[in-house]
Amino acid sequence: MNLLHRVISHIIRKSFPKNPILRFSSSATIPDIDVEYYCNQSNSNEIVNNINSRKGVGDIKRVLDLYDAVTAISPTHSAYQGMQQNLYTELSKLPNRTHPNVQKFTEPQVIKEINNKKDFGNHTPLEFSEITRLLNYVRTDKLGYTCGHKSYYFLGNLAILEEALVKYTVATLLKKNFQLVSVPDILPSSVLESCGMTINSDRTQIYSLDPHHHGPDLYLSGTAEMSLAGLLKNSIHKYDELPLKLAAVSRCFRAETSNVIEERGIYRVHQFTKVEMFIVTTPEQSEDMLEYIRSVQEELFAPLGFHMQILDMPPHELGAPAYRKYDIEAFMPGRKTFGEISSCSNCTDYQSRRLNIKYSDIASNKNTYVHTLNGTACAVPRTLIALLETHQDPKGKIYIPKVLQPYMDEKEYIGKNMNVPELKLVKIKR
Q1: Which of 94, 345, 385, 406 has the fewest Cβ atoms surrounding its Cβ within 10 A?
Q2: Rounded to an integer, what distance in angstroms lies between the CA atom of residue 62 and that of residue 52?
Q3: Which one of 3.30.930.10, 2.40.30.160, 3.40.390.30, 3.40.50.920 gives the CATH number of domain 109-414?
């Protein structure tokens, strides 16, 4: 065990006195991807169908050809290591298996609805951007002096409402015995790629830091899921102390942008605050745990009062790590459409094999890979869109759901920011 692992192990033991981590194992140079499944010729048709129904990434034929080549030569051969690395590079591109219940889905399946749509009577509900302009809540345009396109400032009452959402969410998770972790927002590529993110490609969502000024191989995290997974890298857990339930509040950085009209305003931005859940389980627990995460999300969102639908997502909507994924969409009355506010995924052993996260399996008397799951507890900007559009009043008030009032000095509503000056850009003569 090197010095870094000893330091991290000490930190975790101090932070989580009842944490099920026993020790850190030596890190592997090559991820232990399930070659028994992926490199078995009898599974090739199933894998091809899975690739085609997902996003078409990965080439199982190339994987099988490389596997045959690697197994045909001696490990002492000078070409062996290079061929083995090529094999695992191709294996890493393949998606996780897909849950059999969703393999035939071509569209999201609505499995549940929560809360009724609000009746606004004769009042036509305004869109978030119109509400916040009238109430002086947000600055989203002409931000060239600071953070540029697809960014925002929350002002006064809306900034307080953001904090209330985060505090309410964290308080609820702590009552459910989640352990709160403060995570880093800068990560190396090994952690990001092990979690299933694509970097340094035309389709990347990840911001990279300038290697000439900040050091090589550093990236901004897109979600706390990656930091929490990285925290557990090369760890071994006790069977009887799983599931391990972690939560984190972090800033999330996304490089992708969109010109789609439905994703205007703060719906899709380059940085935002999010509360994330991350759970480690045994393989036998993971399907039930996905339902548990979804129930936690429903319990968090239902008291906020907006209409929602729960969707079981089809294969082409699953990211590479996901075995099954539920999305929660909220109805946004001003936009007259649903928008995704949350999701939760079961990643089975896709991430744990790449990060070497195991547990002590009593039945087999050996260390076995855990299953990892994640779920959004609160993505602030989209939740605020649903809140303001649902709880707007034509007289210029925003009513506060009762569960948030304790975090807002018991205010039942908020109005226009009177003590926050309206921001105006002025031209400076040079």
Answers
A1: 406
A2: 15
A3: 3.30.930.10
Nearest 10 degrees: Cα torsion 313, 315, 319, 322: 80
Which alpha helices (DSSP H) does 206-312 contain, by range? 211-214, 224-231, 286-301
DSSP for 396-417 reads TEEEPPTTTGGGTTT-SEE---
Question: Which residues, listed in sequence order, are joined to residue 244 by a DSSP beta bridge?
Answer: 280
Cβ-proximal residues to 91 (8 Å cutoff; 6+ apart), any chain: 33, 35, 38, 63
pLDDT at 260: 55
**Residue 18: its pLDDT value, please?**
44
| Secondary structure letter of residue 267 according to DSSP | T
Q: CA torsion 336→341→345→351, rounded to 10°? A: 130
Name which of 231, 233, 243 is nearest 352 in CA terms: 233
How far apart CA 149 and CA 355 sit, in angstroms, is 35
pLDDT value at position 427?
A: 56
Q: Report the predicted TM-score, pTM, of the whole model to 2 decimal places.
A: 0.86
Spans of the chain below 70 pLDDT: 1-29, 140-150, 200-204, 254, 256-268, 270, 420-430
The whole-number pLDDT of residue 195 equals 86
**Would you give the end-to-end CA distance of the chain in angstroms?**
60
Residue 16: the pLDDT is: 46
Q: What is the largest CA-CA distance in the chain?
A: 79
Residue whose token pair is 């393999």? 103
Neighbours of 411 (CB within 10 A): 17
| Residue 363 CB partners (closer than 8 Å, separation 6+) | none
* Closest by CA position to 396, among listed 55, 126, 172, 196: 126
DSSP, collapsed to helix, strand or coil, labels residue 83 as helix
Which amino acid appears at position 100 of this protein? P
pLDDT for the residue numbered 186: 86
C-alpha torsion 19→22→23→24, nearest 10: -60
Contact 265, 128 (CB under 8 A): yes
How many residues can be counted in the chain?
430
Q: Which of 94, 47, 96 is nearest to 321 (CA)?
A: 96
Cα 386 to Cα 337: distance, rounded to the nearest angstrom: 10
Residue type, 399: Y
**DSSP H or E run through 187:** strand 186-187
Paired strand residues for 356: none
Give the pair of three-digit tokens for residue 261. 């009209």
**Strands 358-361 and 235-238, how do they pair?**
parallel
